[in-house]
Design brief:
The complex is a heterodimer of chains A (299) and B (108). Chain A contains six helices and 19 strands. Chain A has 299 residues and is an alpha/beta fold. Chain A has two domains: 178 residues, FAD/NAD(P)-binding domain, CATH 3.50.50; 100 residues, FAD/NAD(P)-binding domain. The relative contact order of chain A is 0.18. Chain B is an alpha/beta fold and 108 residues long. Chain B has one domain: Glutaredoxin. Chain B is 38% helix and 26% strand. A five-stranded mixed β-sheet of chain B has the order 1-3-2-4-5. In chain B, helix 2 links the parallel strand 2 and strand 3. In chain B, helix 2 crosses helix 4. The chains are: A alpha/beta (299), B alpha/beta (108). The interface between A and B is medium-sized, with 28 and 27 residues.
Chain lengths: 299, 108
């Protein structure tokens, strides 16, 4: 039986791991097979305080992971499939723990339009940083209006001859600095108030069709339309809001605690507002401190 | 023994003409999810070394092969049997995702 298990491995999970390990809680981090969170799909992170020249997303996550391990956190790269929070100790697959911190983050939303699934990996993509080099002298469409969509568009301009950014609304929700870079870029053209209706192609992507009937020839479609919280396995176990985010803050003594005493949550799985690496890390720290205090008080 | 590395030059001989089924991991150094897939592919290569060949190909250095098989996303794994593609998965599928395909290809 463990004192503390952390489920997830983005900035929230690893930061919780660092703090919990230093508090001698000997945490086990069930990091998931696809560990490291959303920053694994990025290039340079420019707004992480303390790295003024920027740091590569995957590099930052590797550092956090090793930092948690250095202080004694055990990390297993396994996906959790089943939890039971109905009685203490809590059960997480084959493991038992007195307290749990959930930091499972969020997963990319798909458009849910015809052609998307069929052409995934054949022009439909979710990681522009990974796949941009395949678009040398080609045309790429990016769907979305946030920071991720802007970063994807800029990453693609390094290779593609033309990038089309397809935005559902009439403005970008990205940070101003990113939005400006995109709007000023000579090889990015923005389609405002536009939505993809279907993706066309046989062996590979050939075109997209918008809801207004217009068609655009392209070699690829990159999805950056946002994320949904990864809370499927917790549905019947803890309180979620109508969008699936975990509800915390019911107990003033433990702001990161969920509706189940001893189960805490942090990062994008809770946060539908800020969604930054630094806010996730901050919440991970809070959750570890709350869990530490709670474990002491139940003794 | 970790996974072998293929190239444009030896792909025909070592993959398409191999008597065993072959699983090929298309990857690149710049890709974060590929770095997660790498150690898993190495582990599976060791576990299944008698039943199928598991190898990697760096798409950066071997663009012809990636292009020939229409690989536009990495990581992508493609399974070949008797020179023909039989299965494909784009994005890091995790050990379990890869295992499922290996078992399917081997008919286990």
């Amino acid at each position: 039986m463990r004192k503390l298990i952390i489920i997830g491995s983005g900035p929230a999970g690893y930061t919780a791991g660092i703090y919990a390990a230093r508090a001698k809680l000997e945490p086990l981090i069930l990091a998931g097979e696809i560990h490291g969170g959303q920053l694994m799909n990025t290039t340079v992170v420019e707004n992480w305080p303390g790295s003024k020249t920027g740091i590569m997303g995957p590099e930052l996550m590797r550092e956090m992971r090793e930092q948690a391990q250095k202080f004694g956190a055990e990390i297993i790269d396994k996906n959790v499939v089943k939890v039971d929070f109905s009685k203490r100790s809590f059960t997480i697959d084959d493991y038992q723990a007195e307290a749990v911190i959930i930091t499972t983050g969020a997963s990319s939303l798909m458009l849910g339009v015809p052609g998307e699934k069929e052409l995934l990996g054949r022009g439909v993509a979710t990681c522009a940083v990974c796949d941009a080099p395949f678009y040398k002298e080609k045309i790429a469409v990016v769907a979305g209006g946030g920071d991720a969509a802007c970063e994807d568009s800029l990453a693609l301009t390094k290779f593609a001859k033309q990038v089309y950014l397809v935005v559902r609304r009439d403005s970008l929700r990205a940070s101003k600095i990113m939005a400006e870079r995109v709007m000023k870029h000579p090889r990015i053209k923005i389609f405002w108030n536009t939505q993809v209706k279907q993706i066309l192609g046989g062996q590979k992507v050939e075109a997209v069709e918008f809801t207004n009937g217009e068609k655009l020839t392209t070699d690829g479609v990159f999805l950056a339309i946002g994320h949904q919280p990864a809370t499927g396995i917790f549905k019947s176990q803890i309180d979620l809001d109508f969008k699936g985010y975990i509800i915390t803050g019911l107990n003033k003594d433990y702001p990161t605690m969920t509706g189940v005493a001893g189960v805490f949550a942090a990062g994008d799985v809770v946060d539908h507002r800020y969604k930054q690496a630094i806010t996730a890390a901050g919440m991970g720290c809070m959750a570890a401190l709350d869990a530490e205090k709670w474990l002491e008080n139940i003794k | 023994m970790p996974a072998v590395h293929f190239s444009d030059q030896d792909f025909e001989a070592k993959v398409l003409k191999n008597k065993l089924p072959v699983m090929v991991d298309f990857f690149a150094e710049w890709c974060g999810p590929c770095k997660l897939a790498g150690p898993v592919v190495d582990k599976l290569a060791e576990e299944y070394k008698d039943k199928l060949v598991i190898g990697k190909i760096d798409v950066d250095a071997n663009q012809a092969t990636a292009g020939k098989f229409g690989v536009m996303s990495i990581p992508t794994v493609i399974f070949f049997k008797d020179g023909k593609e039989v299965e494909r998965m784009s994005g890091f599928g995790g050990e379990e995702g890869y295992l499922k395909l290996i078992k399917k290809v081997l008919g286990e």
